[in-house]
Amino acid sequence: VDKSKTVAVSEYPIPKSVKQLRSFLGMCNYYRKFIQNYSKICSSLTTLLKKDVKFDWTTKQDDAFNTLKQKLTTAPILAFPDFEKEFFLSIDASDSAIDYVLGQKDHEGLEKVIAYGGRGLRDQEKRWHINHKEGLALIEAIKTFKPYIANNQFTVYTDSITVRWLNNSKYATGRLGRWSLFLQQYTFDIVHRPGTQNQNADALSRRDYPVDGQDKEYQSYDDLPEIGSLQAERKEHIAVTFEFGWENSIRIPEVLASDEAQVRDPDEMLPTRQTLYQLQRNCPDFKPIFDYKLKGLVPDEVQKARSLVAKAYHYEIIEGILYHMVSENSRKLPPGHNFIKQLCVPAVRRHDVM
């Protein structure tokens, strides 16, 4: 067996706390149906989870720990790939690491592991929002296991609602935009799994990984194609649209720009940038979008959370100001300019632009 396929588990560090041990046992429990005498093997480990028991790691725990790692990295849990069957990826991310498991289901519908993977986050990546870390886990999983999934339909299991929309995002820019474009070359479904059902991936994202010394964005992303800015670079035509909320907007007809045109001072129509910055964040129509994009907060109700995540991808925060990015089908636009920005006007100032 290629050791690179199992190193994430075979070199799993000894747990130093109840939390770390519980995470490791969560992964073992996920595959317990394949481990004969599972309860007996891990009894010395589960003892350390008890409330009044001191966390004292001895040779007894060490033997059980190594036995479980050996079980996780050999048959029947580990299997050879069958290219006649569909592959799946289980991914997860934490504040310090990302991980991914490549697997397939056998003839009984039981999940078998083809390979484990994961790495620690670099310093720059640790500062990313958790949504970007989850996206990074997906991108790196696909690049790592590309030989298996490149020309095949596959499924991605994740406990992140955000990742479900990454490959459907039409208006993402920057890092998310490059990832979204990269994903278009693959055919896959994303299935949401609650964290309690995604423990095979969860444990690997919470283990400590060696520091590789690279403090920058994943180098292999250099081959990802860039996408142009969504803001049209044109001088002749001006199209202004004000966005009042998720449902309503008003379009001011396109006009021809002219040096001699008498234009009303924008400050008389709209507040200053700093004032607009505050008004947008306090507006009930836009506050949920800011909370999600800046803090990752979503409503407790699942349906509302999904709706917000879907809609938020149509918005961009540019220099602190919220804009709605929409497709423009008008033939008057120059070729290649297919998007316009809609300024999101706070409710308290909408009468100024009506």
UniProtKB/TrEMBL annotation:
Domain of life: Eukaryota
Keywords for this protein: Multifunctional enzyme
All residue ranges annotated as the Reverse transcriptase/retrotransposon-derived protein RNase H-like domain in the record: 57-156
A family per Pfam: RT_RNaseH_2
Example of a GO MF term: catalytic activity
Coiled-coil zones: none
Cited PANTHER family: PROTEIN CBG26694 (PTHR37984), PROTEIN NYNRIN-LIKE (PTHR37984:SF5)
Protein name: Protein SFI1
Taxon lineage: Eukaryota, Metazoa, Spiralia, Lophotrochozoa, Mollusca
